[in-house]
Write a structure and sequence with these properties.
The chain is of the alpha/beta class. It folds into 2 domains: 3-192 and 309-395, Aminopeptidase (3-Layer(aba) Sandwich); 194-302, Alpha-Beta Plaits (2-Layer Sandwich), CATH 3.30.70. It contains 9 helices and 16 strands. The strands form 4 sheets. The protein has an 8-stranded mixed sheet, with helices on both faces. Strands 10-12-8-13 form a 4-stranded antiparallel sheet, with helices on one face. A hairpin with a 3-residue loop joins strand 1 and strand 2. The longest helix is centred in the N-terminal third of the chain and has 29 residues, at 3-31. It starts with a helix and ends with a helix.
């Protein structure tokens, strides 16, 4: 029997044994969600678990972030692998009728971060129990604030999360409604876009709508800004680099016969290339100011630092996807499509070779509601796969 097969069997045994405990973790976290940068009780729940298992950790890193680690006891130098799971929930009202429904009104784990954390708690327990089977270090990053800028990943990096242990590579997994429980999927290269928020205030002399010659039409100026900025995507970018610039907020608080003195706009820029992103971020304010100037208006433009592209290292991803085939079987491993959503995991991938994959959470008898919706819910059987896969990567 090969070492990998032996390890795989041990992990499967452990996963089955502790499965009820993992479900309990998942249901507790699901029932007690906390918004980004407010994950106080979630972090205390995790550190209490780590204390009970005798696992070393640092807490309060970049907010409520936690770094736990397990040192292998097998002779040899080995490598250092980091694993990441998000802790934060969303401002969504839960519509699921389950015993562990959110007790925090208007807040819900509608993105599966509860399943990520519970799975990693299971994995760190298994890895710690089998620490004689590997050499090197295994790091477990429980991260706050993925859902909200500036991003918990960036805050943890700036707070020195890896000051004591520099990872050779980093792995993250995420719940995926388009696959059934028991399956996982990979993709390599730039797999998710950068994300930058664009906030604009168009200002001018408001007045009576019947007397446009006596005022600055801020509404028309703001409308022209949106149209002009679409030309950035169609005429100013390299057509081989995907980009999306969308505006979902347009507030002109006037009346049928009142042009307001200020109009507020807000949108999002998504890019799949960092060079293209930086060029566009310089163009946007220039186009805005020039456009509103034609209407006698001025503009205030704020573009906070956003999330960079998320990159799955080709060779690392190839190696881990092969490990997944060894552990789960070829029929349970596939590829997911690239898309223009974003992840603050991108901050890690800009600094370290990384692999981001997705684990299926759908059930044969029901389909989860969409991500970020009040009906999102996982098939709890998926936790076995998520725990087992992290453990197998750590040990094999």
């Amino acid at each position: 029997m090969s070492i990998d097969i032996e390890i795989g069997l041990m992990i499967q045994h452990f996963s089955e044994t502790i499965y009820p405990e993992i479900v309990d973790h998942y249901r507790y976290l699901h029932q007690h969600p906390e918004l980004s940068y407010q994950e106080k009780f979630s972090s205390e729940y995790i550190t209490s678990f780590l204390d009970s298992e005798g696992i070393s950790y640092r807490s309060r890193i970049g907010g409520y972030g936690i770094l736990a680690w397990v040192k292998g006891e097998k002779p040899g130098t080995g490598n250092t692998i980091a694993f990441v799971a998000d802790m934060d929930a969303l401002p969504v009202k839960e519509l699921n009728d389950v015993p562990y429904k959110s007790t925090n009104e208007g807040v819900m784990h509608a993105c599966g971060h509860d399943s990520q954390v519970a799975s990693m708690m299971g994995a760190v327990k298994i890895v710690n129990a089998l620490r004689k089977e590997f050499c090197g270090n295994r790091l477990f990053v429980f991260q706050p604030g993925e859902e909200l800028s500036p991003g918990g990943a960036d805050l943890m990096i700036k707070a020195g999360v890896f000051d004591d242990y520099q990872p050779d590579f980093i792995v993250k997994q995420h719940a995926y409604i388009d696959l059934p429980a028991g399956q996982i999927s990979f993709q390599s290269g730039t797999i998710m876009a950068s994300a930058d928020e664009v906030h604009i205030k168009v200002k001018g002399q408001g007045g009576h709508g019947a007397l446009p010659h006596e005022l600055n039409d801020t509404v028309l100026a703001a409308s022209s800004v949106i149209v002009a900025l679409q030309q950035v995507v169609s005429r100013r970018r390299n057509p081989f680099n995907p980009m999306v610039l969308s505006f979902g907020k347009f507030i002109a608080d006037g009346a049928t016969n009142v042009i307001p003195s200020e109009v507020t706009l807000a949108g999002s820029l998504r890019c799949m290339n960092e060079e293209e992103r930086n060029k566009t971020l310089e163009l946007i304010p220039e186009i805005i100011h020039n456009t509103v100037c034609a209407y006698g208006c001025t503009a205030e433009v704020i573009i906070p630092e956003g999330y960079p592209c998320t990159i799955s290292h080709e060779e690392i991803t190839k190696t881990i996807s092969q490990k997944a085939i060894d552990f789960l079987g070829k029929s349970n491993v596939s590829e997911f499509p690239k898309r223009m959503t974003s992840e603050d995991f991108g901050f890690f991938t800009q600094l370290y070779p990384s692999c981001y994959y997705r684990f299926g959470i759908s059930h044969s008898n029901f389909r989860s509601g969409p991500l970020h919706s009040g009906t999102f819910l996982i098939d709890e059987e998926s936790l076995k796969t998520a725990v087992g896969m992290f453990s197998y990567i750590a040990l094999s």
